[in-house]
Design a protein that fits this description.
A hairpin with a 2-residue loop joins strand 1 and strand 2. A two-stranded antiparallel ribbon has the order 1-2. The protein is an all-alpha fold. It contains 9 helices and 2 strands; from the N terminus they run αββαααααααα. It has 2 domains: about 120 residues, no CATH class; about 80 residues, Tetratricopeptide repeat domain (Serine Threonine Protein Phosphatase 5, Tetratricopeptide repeat), CATH 1.25.40. Helix content is about 80%, strand content about 0%.
């Protein structure tokens, strides 16, 4: 065999090894992804069924929904450990905690999410709502204000913040100011107008 043929054969072998290695690596990544996604898919399905209140066309009882939420939490916790930067998993887990009444874990999850997703106004609105259930009003108002600063069109944040000032803190003037601020940025919003009119009576 000539030197030229040996070089050609060597090149072909190298190419085969590179291509084979590439596809083997792709196969490895696919298998790894499938294993990692197994818990997430199971958790997501349980979470979705629990939210819908039905499974395979059957209306679920409260006990059955609670069981689905618990199944969702177990699987989503495993999935989160394997893929801690996956925000879909984290959001669903936080919601599942909330729906089972575990407010502290829901808050803890959302705080971790905020380290990656710190421009999400709805996240801080939800944190405000959760802290309000714990009567932690200082942190509640901080989160509502953060939500408003990120999205001045988030009407629910103005309404909830005004409600905290009026009902929980007995600060009617502060509540009116919040609604006025909301209307200055959303002048056509009827809900803000109605709430402001009610407080001004």
């Amino acid at each position: 065999m000539g030197k030229k043929k040996k070089i050609i054969i060597a090149i072909i072998i190298i190419v085969i090894l590179i291509v084979g290695g590439f596809f083997s690596y792709k196969l490895f990544l696919y298998i790894k992804s499938a294993i990692n996604n197994r818990e997430y898919n199971a958790g997501e399905q349980s979470y979705t069924d629990a939210i819908a209140g039905s499974q395979n066309g059957k209306v679920l009882s409260k006990t059955e929904r609670d069981q689905l939420y618990n199944n969702a939490i177990s699987n989503l916790e495993i999935a989160q450990q394997k893929d801690p930067k996956n925000l879909n998993i984290s959001y669903q887990l936080a919601s599942a905690y909330q729906n089972t009444g575990d407010i502290d874990k829901s808050i803890e999850s959302l705080i971790k999410i905020s380290e990656q997703d710190n421009q999400n106004a709805n996240l801080f609105l939800t944190l405000g709502n959760l802290y309000r259930t714990k009567s932690d009003l200082g942190v509640t108002t901080d989160n509502y204000q953060k939500a408003i600063s990120l999205n001045p069109n988030l009407i629910e944040a103005y309404i909830n913040l005004a409600s905290v000032y009026e009902i929980n803190l007995n600060q009617k003037d502060a509540a009116i100011k919040v609604l006025q601020d909301g209307l200055s940025k959303n002048p056509d919003n009827n809900l803000l107008k109605q709430e402001l009119e009610r407080l001004n009576k």
